[in-house]
Amino acid sequence: MLNADDDEEPEGEKYSPDGGYIPRVLFYDPDGNILDQYKNENGHPDYKYYHFNPTSIAATMKKVIKERNLEKPAVNEEL
After folding, report:
1. Average confidence score pLDDT of the chain
2. What would the DSSP string read from start to end of the chain?
3. Smallest Cα–Cα separation from 23: which of 37, 43, 45, 6?
4. Phi and psi of 44, rounded to 5°?
5. Which has more confidence, 57 or 21?
6. Which of 7, 57, 6 lies closest to 27, judged by CA?
7. Are 35 and 28 in contact (CB under 8 A)?
8. Secondary structure letter of residue 19 according to DSSP
9. Residues 6+ positions from 11 with CB-CB distance below 8 Å
10. d(CA 29, CA 42)
11. Domain ranges in the chain?
12. What pTM value is reported for the model?
């Protein structure tokens, strides 16, 4: 996760696929490629990556985890 102030905002299409507004939440794969299909499903069509509350961010995070098979493996609590 990266939190950038206005004057620290990264430049380029990779970091602003639908324009330059703040805040926006973008998801990337381990190689740094944007996963542009993961956006706020209930958001404004002009601001696809703006999340108006933590619940919408969590819902999108859960979708990424599920669809990319990133579920945390079961932990063996046996010592």
Report:
1. 85
2. -----GGGPPPSGGG-BTB--SS----B-TTS-B-TT-S-TTS-TT-TT--SSHHHHHHHHHHHHHHTT-PPPPP----
3. 6
4. -75, 135
5. 57
6. 57
7. yes
8. B
9. none
10. 23
11. 1-72
12. 0.74
Chain position carrying tokens 């996963």: 35
Dihedral pair phi/psi, residue 25, rounded to 5°: -115, 120
CATH 3.30.470.20 fits 1-72, yes or no: no
Cβ within 8 Å of residue 62, ≥6 positions away: none
Of 51, 54, 55, 35, nearest in space to 43 by CA: 51
CA angle 60, 49, 57 (to 5 degrees): 30
E strand or H helix at 64 = helix 54-67
> pLDDT category, 73, cuts 50, 70, 90?
low
Give the DSSP letter of residue 28.
B
Looking at residue 1, its pLDDT comes to: 60
